[in-house]
Design goal:
Number of strands: 3
Shape: elongated
Structural class: mainly alpha
Order of helices and strands: HEHEHEHHHHH
Number of helices: 8
Length: about 160
């Protein structure tokens, strides 16, 4: 389904199809790479979002993934969404805490901690020893006057 179908709104069409035939799986194939269109498309029930420049094998993979019930998003669009999510997460932390007192490593650990990652996941992603992660977390708790992970999640 394309978002910009002549004489028709592809988003409205996808929404109508999904409401009447919820077992139909829709993959959007469009030139629009704006985040708002991605969110709207997925909100209509689309299970995939590819740009028209996608290679034929990527389109085939997206169709197969949709058939199996898995979501496919164009890699360039997914990368932007991921970067936005990371930025938004960091911005929320900055609003709640004075992060200037944390080192860059502590800020990276805090961002992953707030996203719900385990110490092991943080260590693997940031290429640190788990003990280093534990030490960073202790330092973060001390500097930000936190008692534990749940304090990160409370408003």
């Amino acid at each position: 389904m394309d978002i910009g179908i002549p004489n028709l709104d592809g988003l409205a069409a996808a929404d109508a199809i999904n409401k009447k035939l919820p077992t139909i799986r829709i993959v959007m194939l469009t030139t629009f790479d704006e985040e708002a269109y991605v969110h709207q498309s997925l909100g209509t029930g689309a299970i995939g979002y590819l740009l028209k420049g996608a290679r034929p094998d990527r389109l085939t993979s997206a169709i197969r993934a949709a058939y199996d019930g898995f979501v496919s998003i164009d890699p360039s669009v997914a990368a932007r969404l991921l970067n936005r999510a990371r930025h938004d997460e960091q911005t929320q932390l900055e609003r709640r805490f004075d992060l200037s007192q944390l080192s860059q490593r502590e800020q990276a650990v805090l961002t992953m901690l707030a996203a719900g990652h385990s110490n092991q996941e943080i260590a693997e992603t940031l290429h640190l020893a788990e003990q280093t992660v534990r030490n960073c977390i202790s330092s973060i708790y001390f500097k930000l006057d936190l008692r534990g992970r749940t304090d990160l999640m409370s408003p």
